[in-house]
Amino acid sequence: MSHWEETYNALAGCYDEMTEDVNYPAWADFLEKLFSRGKHPVHTVLDLACGTGTMSFLLAQRGYELIGVDFSPEMLAQAAEKTLEGKGEPPIFLCQAMDKLDLYGTVDACVCLLDSVNHVTRPAQLRKAFQRVRLFLEPGGLFVFDVHTPDHLEGLDGGIFLDETEDAYCVWRTDYHPRRRICTYGMDVFRREGEVWRRESEFHEERAYTVEELTEYLRQAGFVEIRQHGNLKLRKPGAGEERIFFTARKPNTL
To answer: Disulfide check for 172: which of 109, 119, 143, 187 has CB 3.0–4.6 Å away?
Structure first.
């Protein structure tokens, strides 16, 4: 099963509740620090694999023009129900796969967050996705994404995790397959519907990509100034880092 076959029928409805521990404002602060370090000003942003659109709306509130793209209609349905608080233009949402990204114009920056890149388990598709991102970036435009490190994914092997809210309960089991370098997540989601609980199951995968592989994919796609950063840090990744960020730029000239 690849990223493109994953479904979020069960998880989409409770995704925001299950990810309340994600400090989205801190992530947005970090993105703005990265935006400000370049010579190319950032006004329009593509939120690739935007999920339920939380980051899209947050950046829109901060004055950026947002396009949110995700392959899951279920997740985008949740995003469509949200409203923009305060000033700014509401995001535009499109249902597309990463490797088939097709925008009406170019953007100043693209962000792809919360280890969404790991969910693209076929290297050929990820290379194509990077090429599509570069195509729709303005010259000098910035590409930012984060990944779970191979050590982190391998360390999840055999784990059982629980998440619960008042109306939802999720348990998932993780298995790491060294030969394939794939971490699988078998998820059971229980949701309250009146006086009864309904159970649904989902299956997700993440691929362990090395820094060297991702750097080479970016180079092949034509990116320059490829750098790695620690988890929400401007410094280089440290030893034992579980999540690292990549930044790369489209050349100013062809």
So the answer is: 187
Q: How far apart are CA 117 and CA 98, in angstroms?
A: 9
Number of H helices, E strands in the chain: 7, 11
For residues 38 and 137, give the distance between their C-alpha atoms in angstroms, rounded to a whole number: 14
pLDDT at 233: 96
Q: Which residues contact 20 (CB under 8 A, 6 or more apart)?
A: none
Between CA 150 and CA 158, with CA 152 as vertex, the angle to 5 degrees is: 110
Q: Is 212 helix (H, G, I), strand (E, B) or coil?
A: helix
As a whole number of angstroms, the distance between CA 171 and CA 161 comes to: 6
Residues 163-204: tens digit of each pLDDT: 887 888 888 899 999 999 999 998 888 888 888 888 888 889
Average pLDDT over residues 66-94: 92
Residues 6+ apart with CB under 8 A from 135: 101
Mean pLDDT of 39-50: 96
The answer to whether 111 and 45 are in contact (CB under 8 A) is yes
**The three-state (H, E, C) secondary structure of 8-64, written as one string:** CCCCHHHHHHHCCCCCHHHHHHHHHHHHHCCCCCCCEEEEECCCCCHHHHHHHHCCC
CA distance 69 to 145: 14
pTM for this prediction: 0.93
Residue 81 gets which letter from DSSP? T
- Residue corresponding to tokens 């400000």: 36
